[in-house]
Structures are given as structure tokens and as C-alpha cells.
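Format notes (please read before filing issues)

Several people have asked whether sequences and C-alpha cells are stored in separate files. They are not. Every record keeps both together, in the order shown below: the sequence lines, then the C-alpha cell lines. Line labels are part of the format and must not be stripped during preprocessing.
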Amino acid sequence: MTPHRSLLLSAPLLLLACAAQAERADRLQPMVVESDGQQAATVDLARKITVVSGHVLITQGTLKVQADRVEVREVAAGRYTALATGQAGEPARYRQKRDRPDEVLEAQAERIEIDGQAERTRFSGTAQLRILRNGVVSDEASAAVIVYDQKTDTLVFEGGERSAARPESGRARLVFTPRQEAASAPAGAGK
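Then the structure lines:
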């Protein structure tokens, strides 16, 4: 592969650095894209689309995205979007350390849509999200759609449509675990 082609393959994927701003230092790290597919990468220069397939692993600093297929599009000069998809029975996965000490955000979904310009990531299709503190699941959620806005550090959960076959579908479920400091504080300590 020529150096020019290598640059073409990696440059569009830099959007992940902007989109996953949870660990700000990650944006300054080199990005590594690996795939084991027979035709691992295709670059369409005219349409400005890069497709990487076959057990794709993207790492950049603390950011890790695993998917069966990743499609990156340049939507305007210097602006990119990415779509990471899993395969049947194996969702796409996302993991990144946050700027808070010992805190990691993990998510998985059938589709992970990353908008580097808006700094927003959308997890859809049986989406699950976990926040780990010191390696232990602290908070978790599941929903049809979860949107993570890195600029405002907010999460939005959408329940989706309910089906007769699965009455539990259509609901967003959030579980919040008390912080260790709050759990060990004596009753009435704040009065």
C-alpha cells in the first residue's frame, strides 16, 4: 500500500477522535485501524466514502470501537460521520475512558453512528450503555436508542416501539447505583 493510500484510509477515520471527546487527550493520539477481512478496506475517492470490514478494531488512545463493518463519509470539507455495525448476534462495541478519574463508558448496539462535527454518538438497535467506576459497573441503561452528546456530557434514552411478542420492548431502563461515599454517610449527615 502506498503512503498516499494509507493516508487516505486513515484520515477520514480521524473523526472518531472528535466524536469521542470523553478523554480529551485521545484526540492527540495516533489512530490504528485493523481488520482481518479478505477485502479489508475500500476507498471511494469520488464519493468520499471509506469502508473497512471484517472484525474491525479501531483504537486511538483510550477509545476502542469493535465492529464487523465501519463506513466513514466525508460530508463536508473536514467533517466526517461514521457508521459502525455489528453482525447477526454480535453487536458493535464502544469503550472509552472519560475525563473523570477511573471512569469508563462502555456501550454496544447493532449500529453506532458517530458524528465528529456535532460530537455526538448514537447507539441504536438493542442499545446498552454502562459507566464503570474503578472497574465496577456504576450505572447502566438499555433502550432502543441512546444518544451521547460529548459537548454537553448528556445522555438521551429512547424506548422505541412496543411489540406484542415482546411486551418489555419499547421501554428504556436505567439503573443508578449509589456512590460509595453516599452509601457510607451516616443518616441525617446532611441536616
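For reference, the curators noted about this record: Residues 25 and 61 are 7 Å apart (CA to CA). The chain has a mean pLDDT of 79.
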